[in-house]
Every structure is written in structure tokens, then in C-alpha cells.
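TA notes, week 10

Several of you asked for a full example with nothing omitted. So below is the full record: C-alpha cells for the whole chain, then the designed sequence directly under it. When grading your own attempts, check the secondary structure regions first.
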């Protein structure tokens, strides 16, 4: 919790303490003002409800108009090098199997097909019906990466969503 105090922490002797939630909200409003005239907004956020709420507070109108999209991104960073290699090898094998069934597709088309499959197989869960989708091509620096489209809607075709 942001506001829990212990014997080593106290309020400032002068000035004011700003709650972290207010700072988050101000940050998104500042980004909106700073970046001004853009056609589309796309944010990739750490999975934290305060960040989600701050984004929605600042960009609620843009979300309703489908001008702002946001995603949670989750990456398992604590894998050993061997485990990371295993994830990468398994992904390459999955693509090889897919390539044998769709010999006319390029590597990018195969990745898109796999991602669309993962999206179709994803299920809603949690208080906000989040749908987490594994990234089809892990890397050594980002193994077991997954994303959740927070501002999902049905205005895009499946290729655009993927």
C-alpha cells in the first residue's frame, strides 16, 4: 500500500505529500496535454489497477470513441537461461508444425495465424473479464510474454486485433 507508515516514514516537515494515485492520474492527463494532436493512442501498461484507473480517467472519451487503446503486458522475467531457450525452441517448433499445414504462408502470416488462434482460444476471467493472450513468438529477453487488451471492443476485424 502506498500510504502505510512505519517508524522509518513520516509526513514531510514542510510542503505536501501527494497520494500516488493522484500522481498516476496527473501523469496520464499530462501525457494527453503534452502529446496533443494524435489520431490514436496505444498504451502498454504494467498490470496494476491504479494505472488502469488513471488511464481510463484521463482517456475515457478517447476510449469510448475507439481512439485510445490500452493493453496490460506481462512478462516472466525470472526464468533461467535454459528455461528461456526452451520457450524459444518450443515456439519455433509450433511454427514449424503450423507451416507444414499452411505451406503457402510467409513467416509473418504464420505468426499472425497463430496469434489469431491464441486470441480465439483465450477466455475471460477476473472482475473485469480480462482476456490474456500469450505472445506466439517468445524471445530470450521476453519469454512467456502475454497481453490483455483492456479497452477491447468489436469494431476491428480479427487481423487488426491480432
Amino acid at each position: 500500500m502506498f500510504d502505510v507508515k512505519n517508524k522509518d516514514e513520516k509526513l514531510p516537515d514542510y510542503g505536501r505529500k501527494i497520494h500516488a494515485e493522484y500522481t498516476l492520474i496527473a501523469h496520464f492527463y499530462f501525457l494527453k496535454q503534452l502529446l496533443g494532436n494524435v489520431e490514436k493512442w496505444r498504451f502498454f501498461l504494467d498490470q496494476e489497477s491504479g494505472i488502469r484507473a488513471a488511464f481510463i480517467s484521463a482517456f475515457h472519451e478517447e476510449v469510448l470513441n475507439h481512439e485510445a487503446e490500452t493493453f496490460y503486458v506481462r512478462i516472466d522475467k525470472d526464468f533461467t537461461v535454459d528455461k528461456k531457450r526452451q520457450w524459444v525452441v518450443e515456439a519455433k517448433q509450433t511454427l514449424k508444425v503450423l507451416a507444414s499445414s499452411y505451406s503457402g504462408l510467409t513467416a509473418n502470416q504464420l505468426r499472425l495465424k497463430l496469434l489469431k488462434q491464441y486470441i480465439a482460444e483465450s477466455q475471460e476471467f477476473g472482475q473485469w473479464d480480462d482476456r490474456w493472450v500469450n505472445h506466439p513468438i517468445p524471445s530470450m529477453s521476453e519469454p512467456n510474454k502475454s497481453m490483455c487488451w483492456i479497452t477491447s471492443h468489436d469494431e476491428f476485424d480479427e487481423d487488426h486485433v491480432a
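The radius of gyration is 20 Å. Use that as a sanity check on your answer.
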